[in-house]
Design a protein that fits this description.
Chain lengths: 116, 113
């Protein structure tokens, strides 16, 4: 079945360590996104990518980095510069042609990062 | 900039009660509007959408009407079930950007049997 796979589902990190969250999609979507979810704050956009080898900062990009070397993959690295990294991270994808009119995003099941 | 404001939660109802979750927005131009639902431990799923003024989106017994005059997109359901317990997010499309969505803060709904 087509979909978006995020891994790991749960991740624990010590302060000062970088961690990378994986996001893979087999929907053949061009655009991919990373959102951060905190209680009572909804979803906030970290980074997004419309095509391979190109990505743009979202609203809260500081302390994060991404790459888009393949259409199917959009990993997110949470660096030690991120001051408050404990959160639920959601990856999503869309097809620009459809999204221009529908705006529908397809989400993975999320990765919960806890900093110890 | 564009923004979405949702009804404060959490909301707790009894089964078969009528549900309304308020959503208002601020945007330039004519964005599309969406309701997404997040069941426990899962990612978000699109529940319904409306792309122009006076459109009504509907799915699984839920409805919402795009009201440009009041900049609102309230979610309603006539008779809720325990299985509707979830977090509901209102969102709008960022017409200036690359299919970016702006989300409200979410409303947690709990339905008791």
């Amino acid at each position: 079945d087509g979909g978006i796979t995020q891994s790991p589902k749960y991740l624990f990190r010590k302060e000062g360590q970088n961690v990378t969250l994986s996001c893979e999609q087999n929907l053949n979507h061009d655009a991919m996104y990373w959102y951060r979810q905190d209680p009572g704050q909804g979803l906030r956009l970290i980074y997004y990518s419309q095509i391979v080898n190109d990505f743009q900062k979202g609203d809260i990009a500081e302390g994060y980095s991404v790459s888009r070397e393949k259409k199917e993959s959009f990993p997110l690295t949470v660096t030690s510069a991120q001051k408050n990294p404990t959160a639920f991270y959601l990856c999503a994808s869309s097809t620009p042609g459809e999204a221009k009119y529908t705006g529908e995003l397809f989400f993975g099941e999320g990765s919960r990062l806890t900093v110890l | 900039g564009n923004s979405v404001t949702q009804m404060e939660g959490p909301v707790t109802l009894s089964e078969e009660a009528f549900l309304t979750i308020n959503c208002t927005y601020t945007a330039t131009g004519y964005p599309s509007l969406f309701w997404y639902v997040q069941y426990p431990g899962e990612g978000l799923q699109l529940l319904l959408k409306a792309t122009k003024a006076d459109d009504k989106g509907s799915n699984k017994g839920f409805e919402a009407t795009y009201r440009k005059e009041t900049t609102s997109f309230h979610l309603e359901k006539g008779s809720v079930q325990v299985s509707d317990s979830a977090v509901y997010f209102c969102a709008l499309s960022d017409i200036q950007g690359a299919q970016k969505l702006v989300f409200g803060q979410g409303t947690r709904l709990t339905i008791n049997p």
